[in-house]
Amino acid sequence: MRHNKKINHLGRKSAHRKSMLANMATSLIMEKRIITTTAKAKALRIFVEPLITRSKDDSTTSRRVVFAQLRNKYAVTELFREISQKIADRPGGYTRIIKLGLRAGDSADMCMMELVDYNDIYTNGKKAVKAAKTTRRGGRKKAAAETAPATETPAAE
Predict the structure, then answer these.
(1) Nearest residue to 72 (alpha-carbon basis) of 31, 37, 36, 101
(2) How many CB atoms are closer than 10 A to CB 79?
(3) Is residue 63 domain-resident?
(4) Pairs from 139-147 (Cβ < 8 Å, separation ≥ 24)
(5) How sure is the predictor about 155, in pLDDT bands with cuts at 50, 70 and 90?
(6) Residue 9 domain flag
(7) Which residues have a Cβ under 8 Å from the Cβ of 21 and sit 6 or more positions away?
(8) Of 12, 41, 50, 120, which has the fewest Cβ atoms less than 10 A away?
(9) Is residue 112 part of a domain?
(10) CATH number at residue 67
(11) Which domain holds residue 95?
C-alpha cells in the first residue's frame, strides 16, 4: 500500500532528484518556458510554486530559503526582481502545463511548462491578433442588394 506517499521519485535517488528539480526550476525561472516530460513537470510544479510564493516577500530570510533550494544566485535575483512583480496580485497557480504529445524516441508524454503571466496569448492585458475578415458564401447576395439602387414608388396625389 502507498499511503501518504505523495512524492513522485521519478526513478532517481533523492540527491539526483533534488538537483534535477533545482536545475529545472532555474531553467523555468530564467527562460519562462521549458519543454519536459509530464511527470517531471508535475513534480516541478510542486517544487517551484512555493518558491514563487516565497518571493512575494522580499526579505533576507526569503532569499536565503529560496537560494538553499535553487542554488543559483542569478535565478534568485530574477525571481525576486522580475517575477515577483508580475505575480504580486495572483493568489497561486503560477505555472501552466500544456501537453504536447508523445516523444518520438520512447513515447514519453511530453509537455510545455510555462509561467502563466509571461504568455502573451492567454494574458488579459493584451488582445489577441484578429484574423483577416473573411466573407461567407451568402455574402454576395446581400452585398449586391445593398449596392443596387432602391426603387421608389410614386406617391399618390
Answers:
(1) 31
(2) 27
(3) yes
(4) none
(5) low
(6) no
(7) 43, 44, 47, 48
(8) 120
(9) yes
(10) 3.90.1030.10
(11) 14-128
- Quick one: pLDDT at residue 140? 59
Return d(Cα 117, Cα 70) in angstroms, integer: 21
135: pLDDT strictly greater than 90: no
What pLDDT is attached to residue 141?
59
Q: Which position has the grid cell 496580485?
A: 89
The answer to whether position 151 is within a domain reads no
Total domains present in the chain: 1
* Sheet with 95-102, side-by-side order of all strands: 33-37, 109-115, 95-102
Name the 3-class secondary structure at 90: coil
Structure confidence by residue, pLDDT tens digits, 17-50: 999 999 999 999 999 999 999 999 999 999 999 9
Residue range 100-121, pLDDT digits in tens: 999 999 999 999 999 999 987 7
- 113: buried, middle or exposed (CB in 10 Å: 19+, 13-18, 0-12)? buried
| Higher-confidence position of 24 and 131 | 24
